[in-house]
Specification:
The protein is α/β, with parallel strands linked by helices and 421 residues long. The chain has two domains: 25-227, Rossmann fold, CATH 3.40.50.1110; 235-285 and 292-421, no CATH class. The protein has 14 helices and 14 strands. Helix 7 (152-176) links the parallel strand 4 (134-138) and strand 5. The relative contact order is 0.12.
Length: 421
Amino acid sequence: MKMARRIAALFALLLIAGGLSAPQEALRGKDFVAVCGDSITEQKQYSVYIEDYLLMCQPADRLRVMQAGWGGEVAHGFLPRMARDVLALHPTVATTSYGMNDGGYGPFVPDRGKLYGDTLKAIVAEFRKAGVHLIVIGSPGVVDSNTFRNDPNAARVYNETLGKFRDIAREVAAAEGVSFADVHGAMLDVMAKTKAKYGPAYHLAGSDGVHPWQNGQLVMAYAFLKAMGCNGDIGTITVDLAGGRAEATEGHRVLSYANGAVELESTRYPFCFQGDPAVPGATRGVIEFFPFNEDLNRLRLVVKGADAAKRYRVTWALSTKEFAGADLAAGINLAAEFLDNPFCEPFQQTEAVIRKQQEYETSLTKVLLHMLPQYKDAVPDEAEALDRIAAKAIARDEALAQASAEAIVPVRHVIKVEAVP
């Protein structure tokens, strides 16, 4: 172990000596994640999905998330306000999502690209100075190939521009030694696949061609969560039919086992999906086209002692499906196989609390903290009172974040495995 630490330290020193940054640390317990961006961030949808995941799926202990989106913003608009509106809250992790407005909604202009790249470098430097240990630069997403200006050619031209801004963001991330989320590539791929199945009216970048509904926002959240290093292990439940016992990994506790039925209490949730699959305002239809469940949402059931030549029924709450014994022995992903499951209702209830918290954060960052210097200039003799108001506003956000965390309640559920006669 000591030798491994020495090698890691030597590697970091060599990187720094060569003008490169040492690898970033992954998410760690008690991290505070600031989700920064333009109006797509201010929609409070992919940022809510990120907080859903980080709180309920628990890739690290006691995480906190806030959103700091600002409609119409460009990267060089965020740079001068980030200290006042974001860094004043002391985040330890930050994601950025700029480029949609920076590109100008037309053909690529090199000067715009240079300004974007230079500004991203400056943003990274400011985050580092403030002690942010994990920085994720997100690329812009896409405009919808049908609904953007109702002109597929205009959409093609601007997606080419956004692709070049994606490349700039990736180059900056590599040069600065920070993480990169390829939102553009993920959305472009999924957009083509979903339209092939559901038709051109199924938009992935919103009815206005720019602001995604729930389907596209889930793709965005996926890209950022992957870039943050989330590994997707929600847990494993093992049922031993021959041995007459069951066990579970951290976040899941076996309460009882009898005759193939295991009762559990879980504090770590799988990510849950909702809505009509054919509707853009839902998350169920889009998950077929990118590996959210495979990469980020694995709640595995492994059945020992199952006869490979037989089939078995697995019942989870009110849903029952059949599986080959060999598949159960290898393990199935309950989160993917059972979209209707015992976690859906508590997941939605917790998400409602999270959304209330993020709604407040829009006024906190865009109005209260942002306008504070102007208030002080207008009434300098009330500076101390204004500081007290700001402190109380920040304390309220902390209380709302705590309420989001406390909304996650243990879920009792039963999984039953029985051979098909």
